[in-house]
Amino acid sequence: MTHPSGMTLKYHFCEKCGTKIYKEGNGFGFVGMAILQAGTLDGKGGEGEGMRIEDMKVGAELYVKDRVSWVGETAGAGQCREFS
């Protein structure tokens, strides 16, 4: 899929259920990084148990202009008003 910025996004899905798990982009600053769907991190953290959101380091938050008032900023993460 091509994003309005011209960057191409490659989507990765769960082979069992088809849920979108993460995206990869080829735009500046995105090569070698994953754009993770945070809601997919609901595991217990053990071998074969899936990853937990607590185990991840958030590098950036996207669309913060639309953040609901009761969700705070993630300390140390870049804050992007939009994804462009």
Q: What is the structure about, briefly put?
A:
With about 80 residues, this protein is mainly beta.
The rough form would be described as globular
Runs in which pLDDT lies below 50 for 5 or more consecutive residues are none
Number of domains: 1
What proportion of the residues form beta strands (DSSP E)? 15-25%
Could you describe the 3D structure shown?
With 84 residues, this protein is mainly β. It has one domain (9-79). Helix content is 0%, strand content 20%. The protein is built from no helices and five strands. A hairpin with a 6-residue loop joins strand 1 and strand 2 (20-25).
Descriptive labels:
mainly beta, 84 residues
Write the layout of secondary structure elements.
Elements: E1 9-13, E2 20-25, E3 35-36, E4 60-61, E5 78-79
Parallel strand pairs: 4-5
Antiparallel strand pairs: 1-2, 2-3
